From TrEMBL:
This is CocE/NonD family hydrolase. InterPro entries: AB_hydrolase_fold, CocE/Ser_esterase, Galactose-bd-like_sf, Xaa-Pro-like_dom, Xaa-Pro_dipept_C. Residues 1-22 form the signal peptide. Pfam families: Peptidase_S15, PepX_C. Keywords: Hydrolase, Signal. Residues 361-620 form the Xaa-Pro dipeptidyl-peptidase C-terminal domain. GO terms for molecular function: dipeptidyl-peptidase activity. NCBIfam families: CocE_NonD.
Amino acid sequence: MSQFFVKLLVISLLLGPHHLIAQMAYKVQDHYTKTETYITMRDGVKLFTAIYTPKLATATRPYPILLQRTCYGIDPYGKNNYPNNLGPSMTMMQEGYIMVYQDVRGRYKSEGQFTNMTPVTVHKSDTDMDESSDTFDTIDWLVKHVPNNNGNVGQWGMSYPGFYAAAGLLSNHPALKASSPQAPVSDFFFDDFHHNGAFLESYFLLFPWFGVPKKDTTTFAWYDSPPVNTAKVVRDGYQIYLDQGPLTFADTYYKENVFWQETVNHPNYDDFWRKRAVLQHVQPNLKTAVMTVGGWFDAEDLSGPLNLYKTIEKRSPGTYNTIVMGPFGHGGWAYETGHTLHSNLYFGDSLASFYMNEIEAKFFRHFLKGVGNNTGLPEAYMFDTGLKKWNQFDQWPAARIHKQKLYLNAAGTLDQQPPKKIESVSYPSDPMKPVPHTEDLTSTMNFTPYNYMSEDQRFAGRRPDVLVFQTGTLSEDVTLGGEIKAYLNVASTGTDADFFVKLIDVYPLDEPNHAYMPNKNVTLSNYWQMVRSEMMPARFRNSFEKPQPLRAGQKTAVHFPLQDVLHTFKKGHRIMIQVQSTAFPLFARNPQTFVRNPYKAKASDYAKATQTVFNDSFIEVDLLAGAITEHAQQSVWNFEDYRPSVIGMAPFENGAQSVSTSTSVVTLRFSQKMDTRYYSFGKGPLGLESMARVKKLLGFSEDAKSFSFELDVKPNQRYQLVIGQSFRNENGDRLKPYLIDFKTKE
């Protein structure tokens, strides 16, 4: 979605050494003729358009038209200025298409007013417009006025231009034969700026691109720079955003920013967002062939491609409708890097080239040039991110799946059977100490997130405010191929909460590093690879339009999808689920006090809370192959094995029934050396009335293997005190909670 990424796509350095060599040998101006023109829309607004026609085109050798409409500018401007490359790929540029680029209305050299995700006009008059009518008018002009075209038009676009390609489908122009929306923005309440309505604070720096209207046509950026110069500041976005406080800080920078004010004033899924959601307006009987493209690790637009494909499949089943999902971040299929990496993981070589040459080029070649009796492509070309290979399916999700429930056992396991007894496990959630979404703090001031989508999750799973559930070691490969849904039953001491759920592949201890590790300090031994994650505000559990507060302490159902996967958990690996309430600064912090508009929450609204997850909660997955057996072999390495524990206390034994009130100093002994910065105490099962009061902390011993404190106790009383999980060893592993329970003498 971001301009930052789209602009980089046309910079040779981003395209890698393979493209650099090709570009030096192939100059666009040697093979194409450029013209620039304005095309008049039905309401009189003129849109600036650049047309690149192959020099080999003649009346007897016509070429199809390939159109991209964009809000990011179509530079270089000027009829004698040529870009380094054209179209989606070097292959298609060399094969020859009439490449057309257009500034959408209100951007750069086009006239009119720009509107984010232009609302769809359902019933159009002769002068009503939206992106589908602008697409129709553009295509109509092109086929009638561009010399030596064959009457067939294709459209493509990535990210925000992917939205324009998706909206162009609604034009239903008879000449539009093929369209490839790639990482298309489909709905800003679920893509990019929000996930299920939860605001992505990581997008804060992008608002100048979309919220500042231009005053006149221009070839230069007219909007202000981002409020933070990331090149000149410490790049710890976690601290920077935390120090800024509640989201009201944004008015310091964006009080006049149109899109920020629209976002603030529409915190719920109202007509403002619905009218902009292209998915809401997909029509039956679409005549254009569609190939939607996405990346499994696309932190910007994962919802868009998956749900555009599914929506067309549902509403227009007769349409040629296909989907491609590869092991890429945002747009990674559009440029070759040689070794295909995401975060610390290696997926193979030349995977982008395979997509561009064997999938994308075939699609357009067939529908626009009439090559072959069919495309030779499957309904779904999907990359298995566990086995690291392409798979083909005749429908998606695959036909042979069966639903599998994985229950979140309070003991920390994932069970296939529902619990016989309802139990729960709790964790603290402090918005002033949120869980970071990444270990790489230098990435937290980027324009948009990237690597976290497959990052190692050990840093989070070893915190006290993150719950961990996992299977034993898998005795055979298990493939999840399709949808994932979280069915949480939760309670909170607050009146609002977010729940961030992660599906994780736990590698075995003997997993070797691959040859292309980008970070030599990372080890794949016991790597906790995030496969999928999603955030859900509890306020929207029943309706995205009408948020509701939680009732403190009341068990409540919170259900939501995590988006699809195709991932094989290999033999010897384990399946893990993590549950937490913050992922900062990727997502803005929930105040945990219900307010009508979270964007206007005050500092006093932010409160600590205890979140409880009940063991009848489960994650439902589409199981494609393999079996998660009830008695899977337990891992040689077990979560409980590395946790420190209390191995003794003095001067009396735990459970003593006749403790002298003069014996007030208690010393605990630990199984491991502890981190002396952390400690906590809590109430036991008998509640606050029986909680022993800590009068004075005496602290850790010199070797950090014992801890002393003084209690204030009275005669003939039963006392309890929980030594909490905030205690941790030097590696950050949390203490097994320890209940002190004793009675004093009369």
